[in-house]
Amino acid sequence: MSNEEILQGLAAIVEEVAGVDAADVTPEKAFVDDLDIDSLSMVEIAVQAEDKFGVKIPDDELANLKTVSDAVDYIVKNA
Amino acid sequence: MSRTIAPPRQGAPATRIMGLGSYQPDRVVTNDELSQIMDTSDQWIRDRVGIIERRFAAPDETVVDMGVEAGSKALADAGLTASDVDTVIVATCTMPAPIPNAAAQTADRIGIKAVGAFDVNAACAGFCYALGMASDLVRGGTANRVLVVGAEKLTDVVDPVDRSTAIIFADGAGAAVVGPADTPGIGPVAWGSAGDLVDTIYMREHKYIYQEGQSVFRWATTQIAPVALDALALAGLEPSDVDVLVPHQANLRIVEAIAKRLRAKGAREDMVVADDIVYSGNTSSASIPMALDHMRAKGQVRSGDLALLVGFGAGLSYAGQVVLVP
């Protein structure tokens, strides 16, 4: 799966979980500060991303995924 | 000469919930009140946990005081008197000390004399554990009618200015009377534990509850719907049979996540989902019977409805079963 496909898939999850327009989920955005996503929604996003991309995103790793590109890079590396 | 133990007493073919009761302290605590003593806001609390207000017990009001109130109401609702009950189980994790237990004094104060009485600590799963035990005691012939109480004074074990816990936990009690039936009104319990996750909810310095919010949220939103499905399977039922879903009222977002997973497995869109946490907070082992009692009083559920109960919490422990609403 390409980075672009992962970004699109992740954006769809973020939209479904947090009601953020998928078009706003761009690589440089920070989940908390820019997209206003709280810590519990981050868990829901991680759980759905695990199912969709076949990765494990434990809570301690999740804490390091500040931006959308952090998440995409993590998924590329661990899928 | 051979000595033989007499065969077991004959139990009931099945069991049911005969009555429900609940009790909440008088004092209503709003989000705005909490916002004055810690860094939080009404909107922050509503967004994170879905609570609008909760009840706090008076300083001198005890777990037993609240349990007695809820238990007495459940007896009255069942149309029974104290002498009809032969066993009392109190599910609680907030007695001020391990000794004495809550059940013996709760029984005595209701007027149920010299009966079997013991506490169960499975934290927020306690009511479903105790309900399962009560049902099996009646089926096994050890007991005929069991009063099951969930009673908690969580404000005794919460740091009053810790915004991660003080906004969630509250006080109260709920109760059910379990008795014999010709056809099953209580399904088999599906229970279990995840002791490897013990560090996610515990008492910090034996004083205040601490929980690893994200870890507990992940566990509850992913691992508890399967327990509810197991409880349905044990009862020979399908998700579409469920009229009412009553998960432990931990956090409205967890409740909604469990409901969503069950609907993905075939539960109906018109299944009523308990949201009693909104005006009651998280009352641990009291939350399930309290929610069911409140929903019945408001007409959201009716006698004969099929309710799926599932509790989960510290331990970690979990338990669920199907019941018919009395």
TrEMBL record, chain A:
Coiled-coil parts of chain: none
Domain annotation Carrier: ranges: 4-79
PTM description: 4'-phosphopantetheine is transferred from CoA to a specific serine of apo-ACP by acpS.
Keyword Cytoplasm: yes
GO CC terms in record: cytosol; membrane
Keyword Chaperone: no
InterPro entries: ACP, ACP-like_sf, PP-bd_ACP
GO molecular function: acyl binding; acyl carrier activity
Assigned keywords, A-Z: Cytoplasm, Fatty acid biosynthesis, Fatty acid metabolism, Lipid biosynthesis, Lipid metabolism, Phosphopantetheine, Phosphoprotein
Pfam families noted in UniProt: PP-binding (PF00550)
Localization (cell): Cytoplasm
Organism superkingdom: Bacteria
Assigned protein family: Belongs to the acyl carrier protein (ACP) family.
NCBIfam families: acyl_carrier, PRK00982.1-1, PRK00982.1-2, PRK00982.1-4
Protein name: Acyl carrier protein
Annotated organism of origin: Gandjariella thermophila
Automatic annotation (TrEMBL), chain B:
Name of one Pfam family that matches: ACP_syn_III
Primary site of residence: cytoplasm
Coiled-coil features, chain-numbered ranges: none
Physiological role: Catalyzes the condensation reaction of fatty acid synthesis by the addition to an acyl acceptor of two carbons from malonyl-ACP. Catalyzes the first condensation reaction which initiates fatty acid synthesis and may therefore play a role in governing the total rate of fatty acid production. Possesses both acetoacetyl-ACP synthase and acetyl transacylase activities. Its substrate specificity determines the biosynthesis of branched-chain and/or straight-chain of fatty acids.
Residues in Beta-ketoacyl-[acyl-carrier-protein] synthase III N-terminal domain copies: 118-195
Catalytic activity: malonyl-[ACP] + acetyl-CoA + H(+) = 3-oxobutanoyl-[ACP] + CO2 + CoA
Domain called Beta-ketoacyl-[acyl-carrier-protein] synthase III C-terminal: residue spans: 232-323
GO cellular component annotations of the record: cytoplasm
Entry-linked SUPFAM superfamilies: Thiolase-like
Pathway terms, separated by semicolons: Lipid metabolism; fatty acid biosynthesis
Family: Belongs to the thiolase-like superfamily. FabH family.
Gene: fabH
Subcellular location, record wording: Cytoplasm
Complexes and interactors: Homodimer.
EC number annotated for this UniProt entry: 2.3.1.180
Region ACP-binding, residue ranges: 249-253
PANTHER family in UniProt: 3-OXOACYL-[ACYL-CARRIER-PROTEIN] SYNTHASE 3 (PTHR34069), BETA-KETOACYL-[ACYL-CARRIER-PROTEIN] SYNTHASE III (PTHR34069:SF2)
Protein name (record): Beta-ketoacyl-[acyl-carrier-protein] synthase III
Cited InterPro entries: ACP_syn_III_C, ACP_syn_III_N, FabH, Thiolase-like
GO biological process: fatty acid biosynthetic process; secondary metabolite biosynthetic process
Annotated keywords: Acyltransferase, Cytoplasm, Fatty acid biosynthesis, Fatty acid metabolism, Lipid biosynthesis, Lipid metabolism, Multifunctional enzyme, Transferase
Domain notes: The last Arg residue of the ACP-binding site is essential for the weak association between ACP/AcpP and FabH.
Residues forming the catalytic site: C124, H248, N282
Molecular function GO labels: 3-oxoacyl-[acyl-carrier-protein] synthase activity; beta-ketoacyl-acyl-carrier-protein synthase III activity
